[in-house]
Amino acid sequence: MIPSQREVEEAYERVKPYVHKTPVLKPSFLNEVSGVEIYFKCENFQRMGAFKMRGAVNAILQLSEAQRKAGVVTHSSGNFAQALSLAAKNLGVKAYIVMPKNAPQVKKEAVEGYGGIITESESTPIAREQEAERIQNETAATFIHPSNDKNVILGNATSALELLKTHQNLDYLFAPVGGGGLIAGASVAVKYFGKNCKTIGGEPFEVDDAFRSLQTGKIESNKTTNTIADGLKTSLGDVNFPIIKNLVSEIIRVEETEIISAMKLIWERLKIVVEPSSAVALAALLRERQRFQNKKIGIIISGGNVDLKNLPF
User: Fold this and answer.
1) Carries keyword Lyase (predicted)?
2) pTM here?
């Protein structure tokens, strides 16, 4: 079911006191090179460094007092783990975070710094889910999924809403696709606040489950996750896929070399830190730039939490 315009507007008012209104950059050099008028919505400047703060805050604010007292739990190896931990800390709620044992130490330290209570698990999706379920049963904490949750999706939509409030005449909005929470939220905002604007996803060839899911009309999975875009290795869910199927125009797949090139371009020309997953949307636009000549394009830069010891360039 597609959320209503009122639900998006209410989510925006709800999260506004707890998140940054992130800047929009218009790089003249990139516009000249690509022949496209690009507007970057810089969620890498969001609190904890990614758009996921929006969804985490909105989801917790929708809980009852009794639910908040019991705490929240999620499984995540990266940005949502940090987002839920920080959002919970700001709202006086306990956050239990299931992280795989092989998650980067820098991410574990960030979660702990935000007050998240980490439980380690094996890296398989089943192991993560089982551990989260065990914590739920023991603590009565409410489970909040990183991407397949209506309130998370509505929170995510507020990023695209902010962009469309200030740049109403966009022809297209590009966003990376991983678990589907951002692209679903963005497409809902575009539906209600865009003027003849279309939503397009960017996805690595190495994890193209969303591309294939749109083709077959059912949720597909990946056999491998061999991509540098570590934030895009998760699969779509039954809450966000119907939204994506209805509202996302297409998904453009990109090669690993194109992701690295786009990431390097953003670092060098915009002088900002972005993670590989964020570069996928720009890579998708550049791959098909001839189709979008003289169009106004919004791109959501999803996050900037990158391991500086492990840069691809």
Assistant:
1) yes
2) 0.96
For residues 59 and 151, is the Cβ–Cβ distance under 8 A? yes
d(CA 204, CA 253): 5
Max Cα–Cα distance, the chain, nearest Å: 57
Cβ neighbours of residue 144 closer than 8 Å, sequence gap 6 or more = 56, 59, 60, 72, 73, 74, 84, 151, 152
| Dist CA 103 CA 123 (whole Å) | 8
113-136, pLDDT tens digit by residue? 999 999 999 988 889 999 999 999
pLDDT in tens, 206-249: 999 999 999 999 999 998 889 999 889 889 999 999 999 999 99
**For residue 195, what pLDDT band results from cuts at 50, 70 and 90?**
very high
For the chain, list the domains and their CATH numbers. Answer: 5-50+150-310 (3.40.50.1100), 53-143 (3.40.50.1100)
- Residue 132 identity: A
Q: Label residues 260-291 b or e (16+ Cβ within 10 Å = b).
A: bbbbebbbeebebbbbbbbbbbbbbbbbeeee
Instruction: Calculate the alpha carbon distances from 133 to 97, 108, 119, 126, 130 in Å.
Output: 11, 20, 12, 10, 5
What's the token pair of residue 253? Answer: 């797949």
- Report the C-alpha gap between 126 and 19 in whole angstroms: 32
The phi, psi pair for 98, rounded to 5°, reads -90, 120
